[in-house]
Structure formats: C-alpha cells, structure tokens
Design brief:
Layout lengths: L2 H4 L10 H15 L11 H18 L1 H7 L18 H19 L8 H21 L24 H11 L6 H30 L6 H17 L5 H13 L5 H28 L14 H13 L5 H25 L7 H9 L10 H21 L12 E5 L11 E4 L9 E5 L12 H8 L4 H8 L4 H5 L3 H17 L7 H26 L4 H12 L3 H13 L6 H20 L5 H10 L5 H16 L2
Parallel strand pairs: 1-3
Antiparallel strand pairs: 2-3
Helix pairs in contact: 2-5, 3-5, 5-6, 6-12, 7-8, 8-11, 9-11, 10-11, 13-20, 14-21, 15-16, 16-19, 16-20, 19-23, 20-21, 21-22, 23-25
C-alpha cells in the first residue's frame, strides 16, 4: 500500500466513506499552519498560503507534480510515488481540502490585487465543490478536475488505464534516478489496484453497479491489458525503450517484467474477476436515476461540470433550442452542396459516407490522419497573432491512444504539458478505427484539443501560481476549447471550405446534442439505445462515434454539459465587452483576458471580464 494509506492503519475499506473522511479531518486540520485574521493581508501572506496549499495537495497527488514537471529539487521524492486510490487515500484528500479551505476562507482580502483575489476565489470554488462531492456516499471525486464518476473502475476510468499511460507519456526517463522512480511506481501499482478493487466491492454493496454494457467494454479492455502483461507488455517496453535511447545502463526491462508478471498481473486478474462478478448483477439501465441516491449525485455532477445551478430541464431545453439554431445555419450550406432532401441530420449522415472525406481504415489511413493533423497545426499556429496580443509556445505532440484504451475512449482529447516545457502538451487521437474521423471534422478537432484549445490555454494557466495550474473547471476548460473552435472559424479556417464549415457547425451542434442526451439519460429515463439513435439521426454523426460518446456520458454523468454552457458564457462575456468598449474593443485583448485570468468557474470569469473592461476604460 502507498505511504498515505499505511500511515493511517485505522482507515480500512470497512469504514464508510463519511467515517473515513471525518476520521482524518481532525488530524489534518491540526497539522495545518493557521492563518490568523489580520486587518489587511499582505500579498506575500496570500501568495505563501496559496503555494503551501498547492504543495500540500501535491503531496497527495504526486502524479500531478510529475505531469507539471515540478517533482524536482526538494520535491524530487514525489517522482517515485503514485496517487493513493484507496478509500483512505480519498479520505486523506477530503480532509486536507477541508482544512485548507478553512485557511483560505480566513485570509483577509483587503489590499490584495485582482489576480490574487481570483486565485483565492478559485480555490474556494474548487474545494467547496469537491467537499460536496466527498459528502456523497460513493463516487470518484476530483479536486479541481473534470472526471467525476459514480463508478471506481469502468471503461474509461481506473488505474488499469491511467497508470500505464501516465508512466509512458508523463513520467520522464532521462537519468538512472528517473528509471528507479519508474520502477518504484511500478512496484506500487499492485497496491493501487487492490485499493480500487476494495472500493469497487464497497460501492457494489451500496447497490451502485455500472450498467452491463459498460462492464462488458471494461472487461474486454482489462482482459486485453492482462493478456499483454503475460510478457510484460507496454509497462516493460516503455522503460526498456527509453533507457536504451538514453544509454542508461541496467537491467530495467528485467526488473520491470518481474514486477508486472509476478505482482501486477495477479492483482489485475483479481480486479477483473470482481468486474465479472458485478456483471452478473448488472442491469442495462443507463442513467443515474436508477441508482441509489442517483438524483443527488447527478445534481452535484451537473453543478461541478457547469459551475452553475442550472437544472436538468433547463439544460435539456437549452440543448434543443441551440441545436435548432445551429442546424438552421447548416441547412443553406448543405443545399448549396446539393444535399436538399431530408433532415439536416440525414443529410450530414449522407455527407459522412462520401468517400472523398474519409480515410482508409488501415495503417495507411492512420498515417494520413496524423499527417493531416500536423498540417492543420501548422496552419492554425500561424493565425494566433491575430487572436492574442501575448502568445505562448503551443508546445504540442500528437500521439495515438494506446490501442487497449481506444474502445472506451472518445475520438480525441488533449491537454498542456509541464510548466517548464520539457514535457510537451498532448493531442491524443483515437485511431482504433479511422471511421471516427473525416477530413471535414479533423480541423475543428485540432482547434479544440490543441491550438488554440486545451494545449494553448493550459500554457497560460501554467504561468500562474502552482495551485492555479492544478485546479481546473470543466465549464471553463471545455467551454474555452469549444470557443477555440469558433475562433478557428472566425480566423478564416473555412473561408474557402464549405464542407469544413459544416464540420465546424456539426461539432458545435454535437455539444448542443450532449446537453439533450446527458440529461435524457440521467434525468428522463432514456435508454442507451434511445440516446444513440437520437444522437446519430439528429446530428448526422457516425454510429461508432456516438456509441462511444453515449457510453462516456453514462460513466461521467454531467461532464458533457460543461462544453456548450461554458462556450455560451465566454461568448456572452465577449458580447458584453464589445458593447461596453465600442471602438476600444480588441479581440486579441479580450482573448488574453480570458486565458490569462486562468481556469476559473464561470462567475469568476465574469469578474475577470469586469476587470478587463474597467482597465480598458481606464477606470
């Protein structure tokens, strides 16, 4: 077991979630350095508090420290540890968050600059939301993150997916010390899996079992991972390849193989057995409304995802109304292209079958997709001076998702690299089948995942205090990425490409559909099949893509609703800035105000734009 768990022997899987969290709260609160209220807080005191809070959380989230490239120097020991996914580990995070929230709330804000007040507001929002999630009787809760789920291990959640990808993509191997840290983390992997399996059993005992179709997919994926471990698999290949490339002497492959085959594989086999046992009890009901306490979990998940108090009915209505508007824009373009019969969805389905816009479903087609993405990155990078007054590097690497992960993954996802730039941002592309992609959908995907989307925006956040690089809000993250698609259009990406314009509009409509489908599944008793049929027919998206999407919404309730709601708010704030500033408005300055303000909840975004408008007016 990892260090945090072994330090708390009284916190076992037999304790309830609430008991475990309450048991740790007093100890962590006592260990916190109190911040006494003062007449006016010096900026240095606030900065010190934010920095201390960051490192206290990173001590429990060492994988984040590695991903940010800050597990060095005095914090180098973090490079040899994995996150603790046991019940005790979750409780430790919750107790720390509660203690540090009290410290932040006690910090007087008089005399602080706007940026520091924003950072304090961000911590308060992220920590309060996380604590509300931890108070629920089950679920995987992230602090300042987007992947909240009622299910501990499923087709797109769990250490069996996360740890191999993390070790290969984020854990650096440049020295023998790095390789030793890799081995140390690999040795902790069995305890991480055991902790998850214990939580799986505890959640099942509460009557919370994933839908049968999700378990089927997870079982296939885990079985494939387990099969590969017979000879070591990717966990061994990664350290073998990278130590060889760096000329680092040692029997790294042999040591890794012994751990994987003798320690990791048996524990993963036990986790697979637990999923198979739960599959016998599972039902096909897709939504949270059929799970114990599901309505409460979904209400919290929606709030965490959107940073609003919008109800499922309000979100469902917004999706339908927005979809009608977007398809109204698509209709005349389709007519000009000769697609005149049927609904917009039917005509987009026909467009998607046109071989002119498809890639061969083989390795040649996969190579064509990677080359296409690289070409689009070159184009959009050159446009950035037209949209931003201050630029970042846009350090991005395009990588195929691990094949074992592809069946349960979306078409692509992306994020920034380390703070110092040594680990590039990633655009992960799902190439399990090339049918997931087309020549008219890939450009906007590049804008969303890479530039000026997730990778680009994240590089601005990485320039802020450490705690700000760690904490993110789904509505902002995904809202910005969807707004980035709009920027691509406004910068002329489709001026001579009507089919590409349709791909862009379909992408935005896709996110409007998500509002309808997510609330349909979890609040309106839609079945998986009903959701897939409605989505594919209404938006004209491919069935392969839509199936993976719908199943994703079943495992991450509410997450899909952050995209469109966040984009809508960024555009609403932009319209407000245009109206307030008139001729003084500059798109480049507005965009920088949004990204330099960092990843924030939507109410804090509004406050940041207030500050931007006032500064431009000289108030």
């Amino acid at each position: 077991m990892t260090q945090q768990a072994s330090d708390s022997p009284a916190l076992s899987a037999s304790l309830t979630r609430r008991e475990a969290i309450a048991g740790l709260a007093a100890g962590i609160a006592a260990s916190a350095v109190p911040v006494h209220a003062q007449a006016a807080a010096a900026p240095s005191a606030a900065a010190a508090l934010l920095d201390d809070a960051a490192w206290r959380l990173l001590a429990l989230k060492p994988e984040t420290a590695t991903a940010l490239g800050i597990d060095t120097g005095a914090h180098a020991e973090l490079r040899g540890r994995l996150d603790d996914r046991t019940a005790a580990g979750q409780a430790a995070v919750a107790a720390l968050v509660r203690a540090d929230l009290a410290r932040v709330e006690a910090m007087p804000e008089a005399g602080l600059d706007h940026s520091t007040r924003t950072s304090l507001a961000v911590v308060k929002s992220a920590y309060r939301t996380a604590l509300d999630g931890f108070s629920l009787p089950y679920g995987d809760v992230t602090v300042g993150g987007w992947r909240n789920t009622p299910y501990v291990v499923i087709q797109n959640v769990g250490a069996y997916i996360d740890v191999p990808r993390f070790l290969d993509a984020d854990h650096p191997i440049n020295t023998s010390a790095d390789a030793e840290a890799y081995i140390a983390r690999l040795a902790q992997f069995p305890a991480v899996l055991e902790g998850e399996t214990a939580r799986l059993r505890a959640t099942a005992a509460q009557g919370v079992i994933a839908p049968s179709f999700l378990l089927d997919k997870a079982i296939r994926q885990m079985g494939a991972s387990l099969s590969a471990m017979g000879s070591g698999g990717g966990l061994v290949e990664s350290i073998e390849r990278r130590t060889r490339e760096k000329g680092i002497a040692g029997d790294w492959a042999g040591r890794a193989r012994a751990i994987v085959t003798k320690q990791v594989a048996p524990v993963l086999e036990a986790q697979l057995a637990e999923l198979i046992a739960q599959r016998k009890l599972a039902v096909r009901d897709a939504g949270m409304h059929t799970r114990p306490g599901g309505d409460a979990f979904y209400a919290w998940a929606l709030r965490a995802s959107t940073t609003t108090r919008m109800t499922p009915d309000e979100i469902h209505k917004l999706g339908l109304e927005s979809l009608a508007d977007l398809q109204g824009q698509m209709d005349p373009i389709l007519r000009k292209l000769g697609y005149t019969s049927g609904t917009v969805g039917e005509r987009m389905t026909a467009l998607g079958k046109d071989p002119r816009f498809q890639f061969p479903d083989n390795d040649e087609g996969r190579a064509q997709i990677i080359a296409f993405i690289q070409k689009r990155l070159t184009y959009i990078r050159a446009q950035m001076p037209r949209a931003f007054s201050k630029l970042v590097r846009g350090n991005v690497e395009v990588r195929r998702l691990p094949p074992a992960e592809e069946p349960g993954a979306p078409g692509a996802y992306g994020g920034p690299g380390s703070i110092d730039g040594t680990i590039p941002g990633k655009m992960w592309i799902n190439l399990g089948t090339t049918r997931l992609h087309s020549t008219y959908s890939l450009p906007t995907l590049v804008h969303h995942e890479a530039i000026p989307g997730h990778v680009w925006q994240g590089e601005y956040s990485n320039q802020l205090p450490t705690i700000r690089a760690m904490l993110a809000f789904n509505a902002y993250s995904e809202g910005w990425a969807l707004y980035a698609e709009t920027l691509g259009d406004e910068l002329g990406a489709y001026d001579d490409d009507p089919v590409g314009k349709l791909g862009y509009l379909q992408s935005i409509a896709f996110r409007a559909c998500r509002l309808v489908v997510d609330t349909g599944l979890h609040a309106r008793e839609w079945s998986r099949e009903q959701a897939i049929d409605w989505f594919a027919n209404t938006n004209g998206s491919g069935v392969d893509e839509v199936t993976s999407e719908v199943e994703r919404y079943c495992s991450w309730p509410g997450q899909a609703c952050g995209y469109f709601i966040g984009r809508s708010e960024i555009l609403r704030q932009r319209a407000r800035a245009v109206a307030a500033l008139g001729k003084a408005y500059d798109l480049r300055d507005y965009d920088n105000a949004v990204v330099e303000g960092g990843n924030v909840p939507l109410d804090v975004l509004a406050a940041n734009i207030d500050q931007y408008i006032a500064a431009k007016k000289g108030v």
